[in-house]
Amino acid sequence: MGDLSELFAPGRVAVVGATEREGSVGRAIVENLIEDFDGEVVPVNPKYDEVFGLPAVADVGETDADLAIVVVPPHIAVDAVRQAGEAGIQNVVVITAGFGETGSEGAAREQELTEVAEEYDLNLVGPNSLGIMSTPKGMNATFGPENATSGNMSFMSQSGAFITAVLDWANDEGIGFKDVVSLGNKAVLDESDFIDAWGTDEQTDVVIGYLEGIEEGREFIDTAREVTQDTPIVLVKSGRTDAGAQAASSHTGTIAGSDQAYEAGLEQAGVIRAESVQELFDSAQMLANQPLPDSKEIAIITNAGGPGVMSTDAVGDSSLSMASFSDETLEEFSEKLPEEGNIYNPVDIVGDADNDRFSEALDVALADENVGMALVLTCPTAVLDYEQLAEDTVELRKEHDKPVAACFMGGERVKPAAEILQESGIPNYFDPSRAVFALDALSDFKDISRREYDEPTEFDVDEERAREILESVKGRDDTRLGVEAMGLLDAYGIETPQGDIIDSPADALEVAEDIDGNVVMKIVSPDILHKSDIGGVKVGVEDEDVYDAYEDLITRARNYQPDANIIGVQVQEMVDLDNGVETIVGMNRDPQFGPLLMFGLGGIFVEVMEDTTFRVAPVAENEAHTMTEEIDSAPLLRGARGRDPVDVDEVTETIQRLSQLVTDFPAILELDINPLVALPDGAKAVDVRLTVDPDEL
Ligand code: ADP
Ligand code: MG
Questions:
Q1: What is the 3-state secondary structure (H, E, C) of 306-319?
Q2: Is 498 in the pocket of ligand 1 (CB under 6 A)?
Q3: Does residue 499's CB lie within 6 angstroms of at least one atom of ligand 1?
Q4: Mean pLDDT throughout 95-112?
Q5: The CATH number fitting domain 290-449, selected from 3.40.50.2300, 3.30.1950.10, 3.90.550.10, 3.40.50.261
Q6: Helices 386-400/415-423 angle, 10° precision
Q7: In the chain, pLDDT over 70 holds for what percent of residues?
Q8: Does residue 540 line the site of ligand 1, with CB under 6 A?
Q9: What is the pTM of this model?
Q10: Does residue 82's CB lie within 6 angstroms of at least one atom of ligand 1?
Q11: What confidence tens digit (pLDDT) does each residue in 570-598 have?
């Protein structure tokens, strides 16, 4: 996508559909633009000679504008955009609604709009957008009632209504913006384009957004990763319903909904995800105004015991930890604080603390090199001047160059102090947990900005053999594959137990005799998804029982479904489950993010426990390794209760190899290796199930 700087800083703006008609969007836009815009506004409307005293032209082609705002009705909007393109206007905001959001006719119109934009290489916002704002230029090209005040955050939203609500509130709170964009239907420019543009914009220090969906997941991840090396991105993503409404036949498909994909995708992108609007602004304001902490150690200075405990709890829920003070600090505290106080963290300077005691304590704490950040937590008392405390806090924050959050609890009484704090970039929170959350986001961002993203490992694999196996579904109604596709794993270097699929008891015995010890026998049929549910898996079969086991498996399958397509029986080497852990490694294709990998505990527990974790493929080694560490039952892998630890490196490699397989073959819609038995020495895939889309092959 092209450079968006002219979109936000045009010299001349054309309003196509400008009018003075009461209550119209065309009027609101012109009025909003005239108010502060440091540039020229050209009304376009063949019906008028002038609009609000500005000379109007009949055609956007006559405007010589840098940006065209289109508000004309839908049936002529596409033509207006085409004319703008023909006239060399590169930036267009389509306010007009009645496109993709309104059914098939609208969708066709949107398609046409996209084609026109492509033809002329336009930076096109919308359609169905509230418009855009950019405060350095004083440009309010929206039809909203409120203009933004200037600041260093840039804000995009998929809901225009939400923008108007946020601005109304933000103006009250003294929160300002650099650019504001109502994304509309995102026919051309989407979130990734704006993240990319703001990432290199000197005046944007934080990118924030409200999104309902992400168009191109992988592009989003790659763009955001680069931007978050120095610019934080905080997003609220709404809508936890399942976008991937495909009927899933794998465990991974059942568990992996679109929210798992977003959670994984945003995490991998380095985006800080806010669960609410409050979290969005709490963290964004901190990120916009304060330095990054040197450590996660927080000091809490308070004149109130109860809130002190609350904030300590909040620290416990965060990634931060309570700082342990140095000996010198403790000595100074004992000298300066009354005996009934607490010199340890949270530092209780007691209810009768005056301003001197408060700021002295904060000064001492911030000077301690074990302290990375501080929280000033106070309840109103008769001896404390809140405004003075606010000024001292601002002063000390600057002097020590460490992040400080304020929690001056109260209502009317704290307002003037909160304003002093806010003006200097120290947001005041009523609730200590919000203050801790915001500091935590700051510390999170520090970790994100230092992340190194490794390239995925490229394993040497047999892609041709894999393709042949996948192509076996061509021409079939049922495109699911089971253990008959074990070779697929083998082709990608994922270890499978010794064994074979045969279709007679005699052959079964032959295979069994080749295998050391007892064997496992399984029914092989595309119609039987969960083999053990029908007694279709026999574990620990001795050679002399192989004949009977074979007949019994076939009988069970016939009883279950008389016309089942039975391929045969798999005879497989026993894997040492006593010393192993059953895990699941799977993939489900998400409509936005593509292949979503899952790892968790496997076997029969996966559905009940849902102790799983997700990543968008392809993953690098460190990401695959993190997956094995972040499930709740990770200690089981490391050898709980005197058992040997399992080979986590091999599990990690299996995740990476599966990642490569599903990246190489978009035709694989979903896949489970359940279980992948992790052993003290190696890992073996004993079962596999997948669904293939032959059209993608
Ligand atoms: P399904 O999931 O269709 O029921 P599986 O092949 O996963 O069939 O087998 C079910 C369970 O049987 C596995 O979770 C595992 O506990 C056990 N099992 C399967 N194959 C083996 C094997 N080769 N060695 C040891 N246990 C096995
Ligand atoms: Mg299984």
A1: HHHHHHHHHHHHCC
A2: no
A3: no
A4: 94
A5: 3.40.50.261
A6: 20
A7: 96
A8: no
A9: 0.91
A10: no
A11: 999 999 999 999 999 999 999 889 999 99
The reply to whether ligand 1 has any atom less than 6 angstroms from the CB of 675 is: yes
State which of 251, 532, 538, 577 you would mutate to test the pocket of ligand 1, scoring each by most atoms of that ligand within 8 A of its C-beta: 532
Q: Which residue owns the Cα nearest ligand 1 atom 13?
A: 603
Question: Residue 136's CB: how many other CB atoms inside 10 A?
Answer: 12
What are the C-alpha distances in Å from 436 to residues 233, 325, 337?
A: 19, 19, 24
Closest approach atom of ligand 1 to CA 528: 3
Q: Tell me: the pLDDT tens digits for 346-405?
A: 999 998 999 999 999 999 999 999 999 999 999 988 899 999 999 999 999 999 999 999
Query: What letter would DSSP give residue 457?
Result: P
For residue 416, say if its preceding peptide bond is cis, omega within 30 degrees of 0. Answer: no
Distance CA 485, CA 469 (A): 7
CB atoms within 10 A of CB 335: 9
Cα–Cα distance list, 500 to 122, 508, 521, 555, 569 (Å) = 58, 8, 10, 20, 8
pLDDT at 245: 39
Residue nearest to atom 2 of ligand 1 (CA): 530
- Give the ligand 1 atom nearest the CA of 572: 23
The alpha carbon of 645 and the centre of ligand 2 are apart by a number of angstroms equal to: 23
Q: Is the CB of 251 under 6 A from ligand 1?
A: no
Radius of gyration over alpha carbons of the chain, in Å? 31
Domain boundaries of the chain, sorted by first residue: 290-449, 498-573, 577-696
CA of 520 to the centre of ligand 1 (A): 8
Please write the tens of the pLDDT for every residue from 537-566.
999 999 999 999 999 999 999 999 999 999
Domain at 577-696, CATH homologous superfamily = ATP-grasp fold, B domain (3.30.470.20)
Tokens of 508: 């079964």
Q: State the pLDDT at residue 243.
A: 45
Atom of ligand 1 nearest to the CA of 497: 23
Residue 531 in contact with ligand 1 by CB distance below 6 A: yes
For residue 563, the CA-to-ligand 2 centroid distance in Å is 23
The DSSP call for residue 269 is H
How high is the pLDDT of residue 33? Answer: 97
User: Could you tell me if the CB of 601 is within 6 A of ligand 1?
Assistant: no
CATH of domain 498-573: 3.30.1490.20
Q: Which atom of ligand 1 is nearest to the CA of 483?
A: 6
Under DSSP, the state recorded for 258 is H
β-strand partners of 199: none
Q: What is the pLDDT of residue 140?
A: 98
The closest residue, in CA terms, to atom 20 on ligand 1 is 686
